[in-house]
């Protein structure tokens, strides 16, 4: 616990009774993750915001000790840890490692890792600590600012019937699902024509649209409305080529406004390329990028796309080294063929 803040975290089988000096509460039933397959977290940005504002009020309104308790379900424990850990990072201005040490110090075991929204075995484990680092880095770079965050907007636009859109970097990178030729409902699932997005895009400074999936609408409908449209197709569930990554980064770097990115669902391919941008420009590690993107848009980055981002991580480090190296060519020639391959992507 954090004694000086009167804040504690623990796992209990039964809710204890509040006392004159201690208030107990749980988030396990209030904030529930909507899974795609075997994924179970982390909880989304709106839930993190609502939890933080609720806890902040509790601590301000009384001098009691506040104990956030979670049950024995390891999945709920991990989600609860990201909530209270996120609060400590955002509001108490504590470092992620310090927070994680506090969270695990009173536990008989650590926390289970989160997994991707896919069927079958998971090749990449995302830890509670990765999530705290992702939150910390997003806050440091100004993507996460709860003073300016509009939780009602987030909850409205993330709904499929309202466009299925989430900002990953507010005002710069928006992830959404693919528009279709016509707005209609297909087996109870709402599909939107390009025109359904025009107003939101104009109001939020979107200038460019990037399509990563096969064509389900005519790009000219965006172009005729004044948006620049880019096609960077690669297969569903696969990883992008060096050329696709470089072209995507160039679009983001040269767009005069925000860039709206979609594949079919706006999760796998979309999250992967946005991850590349976070890694290149803000030096997120692969795990930090995946954590932040999933907190903004649950279910993002799937299967081999996770290990693809991990393999790119080395090139971010090399890119930094090259910036401080006076003889880039000489430095490049010292690299192994594998490292050269990734290094070129970020040049």
Automatic annotation (TrEMBL):
EC number: 3.1.3.48
Coiled coil: none
Catalytic reaction(s) noted: O-phospho-L-seryl-[protein] + H2O = L-seryl-[protein] + phosphate
Keyword vocabulary terms for this entry: Hydrolase, Protein phosphatase
First-level EC class: hydrolase
Residues of the Tyrosine specific protein phosphatases domain: 246-308
Claim: Hydrolase is one of the keywords in the record: yes
Gene3D superfamilies reported for this sequence: Protein tyrosine phosphatase superfamily
Signal peptide boundaries: none
GO molecular function annotation: protein serine/threonine phosphatase activity; protein tyrosine phosphatase activity
Chain ranges of the Tyrosine-protein phosphatase domain: 164-321
Stated family: Belongs to the protein-tyrosine phosphatase family. Non-receptor class CDC14 subfamily.
PANTHER family: TYROSINE SPECIFIC PROTEIN PHOSPHATASE AND DUAL SPECIFICITY PROTEIN PHOSPHATASE
Protein known as: protein-tyrosine-phosphatase
